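Hi Y.,

Following your request, here is the sequence exactly as I used it, all 460 residues.
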Amino acid sequence: MLPDAVGDAALLDSATRAHTRIVLLFSLAGRIDPGHGTRTRPDSLVDGYDFGRFAPHLLTSEAVLPVPVLSEHPAPAALALPGGDAHPALAAVRILLVTTPRGDATLLLDCEFTDRTEPAALAAWLAATCFDRERITLHDRPLLTVLGERLALPEPLAFGQNVHQLVFPGGPLLDGLLTAARGGDPQRLAGPLGEIIYRGRLRAATAPPPNLHHHGVTLSAHGRGVSVQAGWAPHVENGLMLVALGLVSALAALQRTRLAAFAMMRANEQAPVDSPTEVRALISRLSAGVNELQLDLAFGVEAYVDSLLVPEMLMEGFQTSLGDALGIRACLDNSARMVERLTSVINARSAALDAALAERDERRDRTVSALVAAATLIALPPTLLLAFFGVNGTDVDEGRSILDLEAYGPAYALAWLPFVALAAVGYALLRRAGRRSGALLTPPDEARLPVPGPRPPSGS
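Below is the corresponding structure, written out as tokens. Let me know if you'd prefer a different format.
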């Protein structure tokens, strides 16, 4: 986009704000069914927030958006942070719990402040809500405990690893940031921005924070965990919040997928595989797990890391920039390769099982054939002898026993010797075939290679 076009878009989407607004996004551990609490489900994100000109895009993709399962508007005094009165006073609070179609839950706290908000005070508030988020209380009780009871979940809620905080400055803070940006003084701008984006963890910011964009009447800057978006209209603020919400949810799904892949790898290595039945059960479990991982990567990650939901350059720019700061695309590529290799391992184990079963069937067929041949070999000579002794002829003397070898030795020899000779010849042929198979399995080139002897000393 040309600079003039950028400026025109910024003018159309810009606005002033009287009070500072901060939206906190916390990923939650575990999963929540999107259909949980259907009877009391709050309005959708598109209905609950003003998205302005972005709303038609979101209505088209509403089936992919996170689904609100709980919405609360408590009194500002009911929400307490570590430090109590040391933090800026809140004017309004909205608590929203959303979950993606794959069940990845994110907690959203939408806060607006009443009084003058200095960068140092905001930095302390951001640090407290990030690093001590387990100590946030609602009505003097842990926040997640209250929300879990409201939802009647079978397991308690717990915070995940990912946090992103969007700061929309208002009042004197907004005027000061935009004045410093228009004045072209990077040191004056880097101080308050760096303090907010790094949550006061850096003593001084000597350069502007990363991912900084200035359009004259608006300002966008963010690090990995904090975004500062100044001068934007409410519908743009809500659009940026939705983009950050999708990326936080996608990053949580990626981390869960990575852990699940490692767990499946350990299961593949440690599972007992003493029988084909156990191997078949292991392959079934691993295959089902890989299918879930692929669904998570496709519908829990890939669906939120491109610009298809909101195909607008303003949203796409923030999504690309924040995604690069989070490293989400590289993590997605690595996780996809891990799942592919896990699939290859499962396929190899399945092929080994098929080969083992085929070998077992072949051994069983050989055993049955050998038993039939042996039974035939054993049964034919007695049958011939019984037929001989049953003949009413002159060669059979009724007064002699059939076990009299002196009289009937030639008959026994004629009945047994051909079969004994056939068995001996067959055994010799099988031994010869076995020696040839062993020779085929030995690499022929290894026998021809000379054995390396000691090398002569060098340097002459």
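DSSP finds 13 helices and eleven strands in the chain.

Thanks again,
Q.
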